[in-house]
Amino acid sequence: MSEGLTWTVYDADSMTQAEIYGQVLCDLGDQYPEIVGLSADLANSTKIGKFGKKFPERFINVGIAEQNLFGVAAGMAKAGLLPFVSTMATFASMRACEQVRTDICYQNLNCKIIATHGGASFGQAGSTHHCTEDVAIMRSFANMTVIVPADGIECANAVKACVEYPGPVYIRIGRGFEPKFYDKDDYGFEIGKAVQLMDGTDITLICCGVTVLQAMEAARFLKENDGLSVRVLNIHTIKPIDEEAILKAVLETRRLAVFEEHNIHGGLGSAVADVIALSGKGCAFTKVGIPDCFCEVGYPEDLYTHYKLDADGVIETVRQVMEMDFEEDDDWEDEV
Amino acid sequence: MALSTKEIKELEQHAWQARHDIIDITGWSGGAHIGGGLSVADMLVILYFKYLNVDPKNPQWEDRDRLIVSKGHAGVAYAPVLARKGYFDFQDLETFNKFKSPFGMHLDCLKVKGVDVSTGSLGHGLPIAVGLALGARIQKKDWYTYCILGDGECNEGSVWEAAMAASHFKLNNLITFVDRNGLMIDGSTEEVMGLEPFSDKWRAFGFIVKEVDGHDFNQLAEAIDFAKAEKSGPVVIMAKTAKGKGVDFMENEVKWHYGGLDTDLRAKAKASVDRMYGKA
Ligand SMILES: Cc1ncc(C[n+]2csc(CCOP(=O)(O)OP(=O)(O)O)c2C)c(N)n1
Ligand SMILES: [Mg+2]
C-alpha cells in the first residue's frame, strides 16, 4: 500500500502549464486593460485566480455554473472587453457546449478559453473528469481556433499570441503536472504553423500536447537504434491546421503517425487524415489516441503507457508503420 | 419515530468506521475529496444502515430504493460505506485512483456494485433523480429515490430546472438532501456565489424544507420519516454540516476540499475522529 503525498489544492501552485498561464495573463493584464478573467469555482485549480488576485475588479467567479460562465463571457465580449475564461476542459467543451458554439462562435466574439485538465491528465478522477472529446467538439465550431500546447512555455506563447488573434480561441492544457519540453520561448511559435522539431525522410511523427516530448524521445531512440530518419512535427494548432507542413511530410516521408491525448475520432489524427485524403496522395498512416472508449482510471503516466502514448508506445507504432504497405500508384489489384 | 439508543449506537459505530475508512483511502490513494466526504458521511450511513431498501447480494434488484450521490466527488465516502454494507470487500478499495481500478474518485455505476448512477460532473444528479421518481410512479412502484446535492453544486442551473420539475410533478417519492457545509472550492458559498436565502429558494420552487443538523442521527431520521410520509410533493432536507467533520484540522477549512494524507497526518486525523466519538 503506497502512501499519499501531503498536499492540498493550494500547494498545486507548482503546476507548470497552468501556473505559467496564470502568470502570463497577469502580465498581459497590465498591457491590455480590456482583458477580464472568468471562472466557475475553479479559479485556484485552473490558476486564473492569479489574475483575479492581481485584478480583483476585472475578475468574475460565477460559482459552479459553466453555462452561465460562457454566457456571461459572451456578454462581456459584446460590451467590448476581452474575456479569458478558464474551467476544466470537460465542462468548457461539453457542459457549456452550446453557449460556446452559439453565444461565442456564432457571433464570432473575441473570447479566449483556457481549458485545463484536458485528456487523461486527471486520470484518477474517472470518466466524468477525463476529456478526450473536446478537440473534436471545438474543431467543429465555425470561427473557432483550437490549440493544444506542448508544455507551459508553449502555453504561454499561445496565450500571448491569442490576444491579438481575432475571434474565439480554445487552448487546451493539462492539469499542470506535465513535464517541461521547451527550454526557451523563442522557437518561432505562430498560431496555425507547425513546429518542425527534427527533420527526417523515413517517417513523420505528428503530435501535440504531452505527446510532443514522448515523440521526440522516441525519434532520438529510433535514429540511434533503428537507423531511422524521423521527422517530428509539433502541430500545436489543430485548427486552422498547417496543411502545407502535412503535405510536405507526405511527399517527403510517405509514412505518417499521429499521437494525441484524445479519442482517435475527431482530433488531430482526424484533422491530419482529412488533409491527406483530400490531397489524393497515398501514404502509410496511423493515428494513436484513446481508442474510442471511456478511458481507464489511473494516474496519467500509467494511462499514457497503456494507450501507447509514451515513448515506448511511439517506438512500437513507428516500427509497425515502417512495415505497412501502401499504394503509390493506381494499381489496387494486389490489395483487393 | 425517534431512534432507539441501540440504533444510535450502531449508527455512530458505522459513522466512526466510515471516517476511519475515508482517512485511510485518502492516504493510500494519493489524494481525494476528503472534506466533502467527511461532511456527507453521516447521511450516507443513516441511508445505508437504516433507510435504503436495498440488497447488497442483489444490487440490481428492481424494487430497490435508488440513491444518487450527485456530489460525485464524495466517492471517497460513498465507496467505503458500500463496502461495509456488503457490496464488495473493503480491501478492494486499496486500488482507489490506481491504474485500471474500478474505483476512480467519482464512482462509476458500470464498475462499482451498488452505485445507481455515475456522477462527478455537478448538477446532473437531481434531473436523473426526477426521471427515476417519475419512472417509479409511471410503473406503479413504491420505491423511493434519494438524491444528495452539494450546496455549491446548487449554483448549477440544472439543479433548479429539476427542482421546478420535481414540484410541478408533485414527486412525493423523491427525497433530496443538500449537504449545507457552506464551502465550495474557491471559498465559502456566500463569498463565491451567495445561496441565501437558500431554504426560501427551495420553498419558492415548491419544496417543503426540513432544516436539520446533518451530523445528528435523530434529526436526520425525523426528517427522512417526515419526507417519506409527506404526500403533497417533494421534500428537501437541508442538512447543516461541517466540511471535514471529525478531523479538527480540516473542519470548515476550504483548503481541505481535496487533499492527501501522509502516515503522520493520517494518525492525527484518526486520533481526532476517535476523540469525537469518545474512543480516545
Ligand atoms: C460541472 C462541474 N463543475 C465543476 C466541478 C469541479 N468541482 C468539483 S467539487 C467542486 C465544489 C463542490 O462544492 P459543493 O457542491 O459545495 O461540494 P462539497 O462542499 O460538499 O464538497 C467543484 C467546483 C465539477 N465536478 N463539476
Ligand atoms: Mg459545499
Sheet/helix structural class of chain A: alpha/beta
CATH superfamily of the largest domain in chain A: Thiamin diphosphate (ThDP)-binding fold, Pyr/PP domains
* Number of self-contained structural domains of chain B: 1
CATH superfamily of chain B: Thiamin diphosphate (ThDP)-binding fold, Pyr/PP domains
pLDDT averaged residue by residue of chain B? 98
Reported for the largest beta sheet of chain B, the result is: 5 strands, parallel
CATH topology of chain B: Rossmann fold
Q: How many domain modules of chain A?
A: 2
Largest sheet of chain A: 7 strands, mixed
Proportion in helices of chain B = 40-55%
Q: How would you spell out the order of helices and strands of chain B? A: HHEHHEHEHHEHEH
What can you see in these coordinates?
- The complex is a heterodimer of chains A (336) and B (280).
- Chain A is α/β, with parallel strands linked by helices and 336 residues long.
- Chain A has two domains: 3-172, Thiamin diphosphate (ThDP)-binding fold, Pyr/PP domains (Rossmann fold), CATH 3.40.50; 195-323, Rossmann fold (3-Layer(aba) Sandwich), CATH 3.40.50.
- Helix content of chain A is 39%, strand content 18%.
- Chain A has helices spanning 16-31, 43-46, 49-54, 66-78, 89-95, 97-105, 134-139, 152-163, 211-226, 243-253, 268-279, 300-306, 311-323, and strands at residues 35-39, 59-61, 82-88, 112-116, 145-147, 169-172, 195-198, 203-207, 230-234, 237-239, 255-263, 284-290.
- Chain B is of the alpha/beta class and 280 residues long.
- Chain B has a single domain (5-276), classed as Thiamin diphosphate (ThDP)-binding fold, Pyr/PP domains (Rossmann fold).
- Chain B has nine helices and five strands; from the N terminus they run H-H-E-H-H-E-H-E-H-H-E-H-E-H.
- Chain B has helices spanning 5-29, 34-51, 75-85, 125-138, 157-168, 189-192, 198-204, 217-229, 263-276; strands spanning 66-69, 145-150, 174-180, 208-213, 235-240.
- The mean pLDDT of chain B is 98.
- The chains are: A alpha/beta (336), B alpha/beta (280).
- The interface between A and B is large, with 41 and 47 residues.
- Bound molecules: thiamine diphosphate and magnesium ion.
- Thiamine diphosphate sits between chains B (33, 35-36, 39, 71, 73, 120-123, 150-153, 179, 181, 183-185, 243, 257) and A (41-42, 64, 66, 91, 95).
